[in-house]
Design a protein that fits this description.
Elements (H helix, E strand, L loop, with lengths): L11 H15 L8 E6 L9 H14 L2 E11 L6 H9 L4 E7 L3 H6 L6 H14 L4 E7 L6 H14 L3 E6 L7 H5 L10 H17 L3 E4 L2 E3 L6 H7 L12 E4 L2 E4 L4 H14 L10 E2 L5 H12 L6 E2 H8 L1 H16 L3 E4 L19 E4 L3 H4 L1 H11 L3
Parallel strand pairs: 1-2, 2-3, 3-4, 4-5
Antiparallel strand pairs: 5-7, 6-7, 8-9, 9-10, 11-13, 12-13
Helix pairs in contact: 1-2, 1-10, 2-3, 3-5, 6-8, 12-13, 13-15
Length: about 400
């Protein structure tokens, strides 16, 4: 558990951050309402006390409204919350927890810089059950230093045994200029080889689907009815609000990115309040230029092909034109012949398309599971190069 002086109402730093966040919410224009999902993530949300979380939820409800059946998720790491704290969050409306487990081996947890232990994982799961949180997700990471196929299989089986409603599996990404990058380089031992991490992906797909989880997105598996509604908003390229330091919104065809340092973020919000201009139109906030039709098309493809159900061809043709789809289809035919790309009917039945045959005007375009997902970057690179990116 976090030390008494370093979190929640006992931390002046966190109190100040919450006050600035509430100001940002209060001056943000209302584009769409009510909110159907709310997700507390990025950083360590469990540093918030229940009263602070309640103030944020109240501010969101007053400004935008929160739907009665909204999914309200919270990221919590093992060892960072108590049963009393979690019960407080749930009493305010939190009905889904996403827990960053990462691995079920103490050695791998230490090597990846995680603060929790294997024992902490099982204590956290016990707390979830005591409080009555039935809808929870577990995150696992493949490709960790010294990680073997056997360890990965063991982590998957341990996760399945806990019976979460949702499991996310991510391949380790080493960001430049981070402490981790000083010790490890992609593709270089002790990190597993690309061939090994690809096999880890296949093992995850086989293990989790055999256990009753649907592989509904490239990195995500869910029991029936438990897909993450919030993340589906991103993958379906629908509008969303983002609040807080470094957060991004997508509203009215524009992406708005908040400052990524505490000082700049505070200054941005306070200047917006002083100027009387509502966010995000204050001119202080960093925002991208209006997204072009071509950008939206490519982004829709990039995000939609992450989903197992794929993209609806009728909707794509109506939104972007059939000629543009024909361009994409010519580009994708080599991957279709390799079995990485699939065309289905509306109900998911696979279609066999002869060489040179035109793309159907209805049905769905998707990547195969697992091979198409594994080589999604190769496929997307070919699509983007077609448009000069």
């Amino acid at each position: 558990m976090v030390g008494e002086r370093s979190w929640g109402d006992n931390s002046g730093t966190i109190q100040h951050y919450v006050e600035i966040l509430l100001k940002e919410i209060s001056i943000t224009p209302v584009f769409c309402q009510p909110l159907e999902t709310v997700f507390f993530g990025g950083g360590t949300p469990s540093l918030l006390s229940p009263s602070q979380l309640g103030r944020i939820l109240d501010a969101l409800a007053q400004r935008f409204g929160i739907a009665e059946n909204a999914e309200i998720s919270m990221e919590l790491d093992p060892g960072t919350f108590s049963s009393q704290q979690l019960a407080g969050y749930c009493s305010l409306g939190v009905n889904r927890v996403s827990m960053g487990v990462q691995a079920f081996q103490d050695q791998l947890l230490r090597l990846s810089g995680r603060a929790h232990s294997l024992a902490d994982i099982y204590i956290a799961v016990d707390i979830l059950r005591q409080v009555g949180v039935s809808n929870f997700s577990i995150d696992l990471i493949s490709g960790l230093p010294y990680q073997t196929l056997e360890q990965w299989q063991a982590s998957l089986q341990a996760a399945v045994a806990i019976e979460p409603t949702h499991i996310s599996t991510y391949d380790l990404i080493i960001e430049p200029k981070t402490p981790f990058s000083r010790y490890y380089q992609p593709g270089v031992a002790p990190l597993p080889s690309d061939e090994t991490t690809a096999e880890m992906y296949r093992i995850a797909q086989q293990t989790l689907t055999s256990a009753g989880y649907k592989h509904y997105e490239i990195s995500n598996y869910a029991k029936p009815g438990y897909q993450c509604r919030h993340n589906l908003v991103y993958w379906q390229n629908r509008p969303y609000y983002g609040f807080g330091m470094g957060a991004t919104s997508y509203l009215g065809g524009h992406r708005f990115t908040r400052p990524r340092t505490t000082r700049d973020y505070y200054q941005w919000v306070l200047q917006a309040c002083a100027s009387g201009f509502p966010l995000p139109n204050s001119g202080i906030q960093k925002h991208d230029s209006p997204t072009s039709s071509e950008d939206i098309f490519l982004e829709t493809l990039m995000l939609g092909l992450r989903l197992q159900e794929g993209l609806n061809l009728t909707v794509l043709a109506k939104q972007f034109g059939y000629e543009r789809l024909e361009q994409i289809w010519k580009c994708l035919q080599p991957y279709y012949r390799q079995g990485w790309v699939e065309i289905t009917t509306e109900d998911g039945t696979l279609l066999a398309i002869s060489p040179g045959q035109a793309l159907p005007i209805s049905g769905k375009l998707r990547l195969s599971d697992p091979e198409g997902f594994l080589f999604s970057n190769t496929i997307l690179a070919a699509i983007f190069s077609l448009f000069g990116y």
